[in-house]
Amino acid sequence: MEWALVVAYLLALAVFAALGAPIAALCFRHLPRRGAAFAIPAALAPFAIAVFWIGQLTFGLHTLALGVAVVLAGSVAALRTGVAPEWRAVASMYGVFVVGFLVMVVFRAASPGLTPVGGEQFLHFGLVNALERANSLPPEDMWFAGEPLKYYYGTQLQVTGLSMLTGTPVRYGFNLGIATFYGLLFVVAYGLGGAIVHRRGYSHRLGGVFAAFFVALAGPTTTTIRLATPHLPDAIAEPVSRAAFGFVASRFNGGDLARTVAELSNPGEWYWWYTRYVVPGTIQEVPLYSFVKADLHGHAFANGYVLFAGALAFAYYVTPAADRRLRAGILFGGLGSIAGLFGFMNTWSLPTVAGLTVLAVALADPHPDTLLPASWRERLSLSATAADDRPRLLDELRRLTLAVVAGGVVLLVGVAVASPFLVFGHVPTNDGIGFFPPRSSLGPFLVIYGGLVAVFGLYVATRGRPAIADVPGRWVAGGALALLAAVAATILALDFAVLAVLGPLIFAGWILVRSGRGDFAVVLLIAGTGLLLSFEVVHARLPLIPQPRWNTSLKVAVQGWTLGAAGAGAAIAVLLARSAERLAPGVQSLRSTAADSASNDGPTADRDPVPTLRAAGTIALVAMVVLASAVFPAMVFSVEVGSKLDDSRYDSSLDGFAYVEAFHPQEYDALRWLDERSGHPTVVEAPGDSYRWTSPAATYSGLPGVIGWDHQAEYRSAEAYERRVAHVDELYTAEWDVAAAHLARYNVTYVYVGPNEIERYGEDMRSFDREAFPVAFEGGNVTIYEIDRDALSVSGQES
């Protein structure tokens, strides 16, 4: 293990925590511990934005130093307002970050090699390498030489920045960056859950532990259900098998359901890869899945910031109406900046920030009108007295309308912050927005989210029960029948079973919060389940992906889990604390009742056992959800770490080049040689299928390659991609004048001839044994030719 690099990263992040603590204390002054858990993202977010903007002009170590200076200036400005961090709390929350960081270090050290198979590590490692070479942003595309990158690169920019600041080669920094973002997610979840539960009067630590567990470690109930399926009665096992295994069977096993059940219900053959394939036509991940998969995808790494946006929304939610400037600053400065970060890091999270803004503004006690100066409110007749005179329903609609306006403003701020990429940059295009795609069946949906839905339902029932305690029984029964009828109609008439389940929960949660019986855990549950419901209605239309919801579900579902799981973790902590309070005296009461009954010492009717039984039932249900959610991380650890420890294959390294050394050792020296070249010389290598060992020269060096994976067909157009593929093929096989023209067109410096080129072109590959192609490197089974441009321009016809 490269412990020196691990320590360097932890020290760097400790510095960021110290710099961010005053900024967090300013924004979260009304939260317990003054937002100590949010110190690291409070520094990293403005650092990334500053580097992004300065980098449009110049990029390098000096740019990163300027970014740190910007954060330092913000920290000093925050201190000058009079706020002071609770430094002991900052230190303890940094310890929580270290726990999350080291958990992911353990995972990455088990499989550090960056592989092209099954994911997009190749794409993202190439981006990190290209960014390290860049003189300005965006960098030149390593898979489309001569053109700027056409992909949101905020995640890779932060990973590269941390590598450069700590002097870490990116072959290690890639994996340490993954651990950094996981630690960020872990500590923000802990801090947000703890703050919500503390505000309810219960243990901050209890809320933090459960929120961190459910967000960063827990998994869907899919694994538990799949492992339990063979042990179910036949009448139940058949529908459960179809719901839990049907999509995997059709996608991977030719529809053989029995074989799929036998494989994935066997703990010895279980593999975490298949847990995202449950609802047909979608892929739905949870954070631990995404981090173990270890791509630097924005949709995976942005979730720590998504939760940080949730924390900012909570800060707004609890800030008194009189503190108007702070509330406006949190909304348009804080949430607007995070929206801007998402603009170049993960554009799929931009609408999420706007949605969190809408929820916070609409559901907080202070009326949205109070965000405006008093003089404006008087001119617009928005005084508190006028609000009191309006009917409640009308005022709630007004609240929601103003909240939507606030969300729109935050969105505009985000677009402005990210404008060098979103407005003036090179954003991948699609075919617009589609509506009402094929919807999810309820069975597969609950296989994934059954635990989350159960917690939401239990919390709503627990918080709402006192509100209907005095309602006549016939009214309650009538309301229940009306709800059942609406659910049945939604399922039968609209074929929208997910809406039938989530719709009433979201509506009830909204009513609870506005009536003062809910808390911010309910707001997060509304946000999370609302995101899960969203791609049942709307989706991005991507031209080269036949399943309409495929990419949308991947990018949105993990955000839904992150927010919903944070709310569920806080809700479970409150449920357990309340139930424990009621259970202890209740048990004593039951014992007294039993003793009185046995001795016939008096009536027992006044000693109601129902509250005790209700508390016991709540604890039992919560325990079932926790255990069902814990199976996934236990199985993942067993597969990724435990099996390697048992077989003595745990190498304990963070070297991303480990895959090359193990599987392509004859190209290792050549790739290292290319990686050591300075500047931006263009390299050409054979094209090939994506998710295979293709384009290694450009990927492992970050040098611009003429053409790479077929992702470029989506980013640039199929015609542009195929044209370059044809040119590269001609460069290796066509007559000399044609090949020379292509070499000049793409300003090629290095021609890579290795196993892929030999396999693709065989005997048709031209000879490079001529004056224009001196050998620059030769070793293993690779030869790299360096173009002599003078000789190329005067060379005659090929002999």
From TrEMBL:
Signal peptide: none annotated. This is Chlor_Arch_YYY domain-containing protein. PANTHER family: TETRATRICOPEPTIDE REPEAT PROTEIN, TPR-DOMAIN CONTAINING PROTEIN. It comes from Natronomonas salsuginis. Keywords: Membrane, Transmembrane, Transmembrane helix. It holds the Pfam family DUF2298. The chain crosses the membrane at residues 6-28, 35-55, 61-79, 91-110, 172-197, 209-229, 300-319, 400-422, 442-461, 473-490, 496-513, 520-538, 558-577, 615-639.
